Amino acid sequence: MSLLEEITRGEPYDLEFKLIPNEERIKYLKTVVAFANGRGGRLLFGVANDRTVHGIANDKVYAELDGITNSISDACSPRIPIGAGIENIDGKAVIVVDVFPGSRCPYFIKSEGEKDGVYIRVGATTQRADDATRRELALLSDGRSFDAEPCPKAKIDDRRIKALCSMMYRTARKNCDSEAERRLVKRITPEQLEAWGVISKVRDRWVASNAYALFTGDPAFSIRLKCGLFKGDDKDVFLDRRDFTGSVPELIDIGLDYILAKINMGCYFQGAYRHDRYELPPDEMRELVINAFAHRLYLQHDAPVFIAIYDSRIEITSPGGLPRGQTAARALAGYSKIRNDVLAKALNYMRFIEEWGSGLRRVNKVFAEYGLRDISLEDAGFAVKMNVYRAAKAGDEVVNPDLSSKKWKNDTINVTVNVTANDTVKSDGVTINDRLIESVRMNPGQNADFHARQLG
Predict the structure, then answer these.
(1) Last residue of a domain, one of 103, 129, 155
(2) Each residue of 165-217: pLDDT tens digit?
(3) Which domain holds residue 212?
(4) Which residues are CB-contacts of 332 (< 8 A; sequence separation ≥ 6)?
């Protein structure tokens, strides 16, 4: 792509226009720091925000180039790797500064200090990094992830480790699609957990990691899920709100169950047979809930994952911006960027994560088959928001989703029906309760009067 073509496409995540270098010094220094803390980028001096190429006067361009490179060297710390030069566009000189991803994060502006002088890119804007992001950048520079860090307050012993191994094995088998796949699941051992970084051994004693606490639901690292059902398309009127705490696997299941309990179910016919289906594909909704927990920033462990259900959409919000170097467009295109390496390995074993990097792309493909819009992904810097757009089709029969949930296999069905004492057990040995359950399962959209007539 030529430089003029880059200018024509505007300012994406990794491109910034600056008109006059000396008058915008602090602004371009912030951008340079943000690019170094991310996946790099390019600054073009002599180009206005409206993409008009003004250029730098020929008698000043080399002095301006020296001033820019010296400012970056003197004002930023640690030293930021850059490349700089001059290119000609239609007879106008444009200064091009390429900023490379740094390996000594977090980079900052010296005059603002190590706390306030750290900046990151959020979409096509530059923002000051919060404390959690600064800490994550420091960990990444050391080749570490927060979920692998020790959690000294977590309770750990041989019995608890054995229980964790058993839970992970059961979960992996439960998430299999077939008996053949279940037979391939191998039991987890403490040695495997150690290899993944879930636990470690120091002087013959087991030490828990943050990932261990996340998988066991240890109070030392408590995480939350907040769910809400709203009237309309804003948060003015609550219809239902819930606050959950637990382990990552537990909260994933709770989040999906909450969504399925609150969305509609429609039906379609194949020949003479009626088939019920949720308005949104359950497997793909599960994928989105998993993403919210797998890729969130756990340095902000007191910040909950939010699931908000509105009339026209579902919002799933996870704390922390996208991982370093990731963008919303790249994520939706299938590019995978793992933030929590230890967590991801264990979730992959438990069949929560199946295909690396294909999740969101596959979700949108299935949504298209459902006749739904693609999901949208918004990086707000401090949080990532996924929007799922609901679109009930005209003519779909809406039934009570609770009656069609898999949970009804074991739960009590609360439908009021007037029966006499003599009708409690029929001659074939089938109780009224059994017949009622069967009637509700076969006719999930009907009311109590209908089921009473069915029972005679």
Answers:
(1) 129
(2) 999 999 999 999 899 999 999 999 999 999 999 999 998 899 999 999 999 99
(3) 147-219
(4) 360, 361, 364, 374, 375, 377
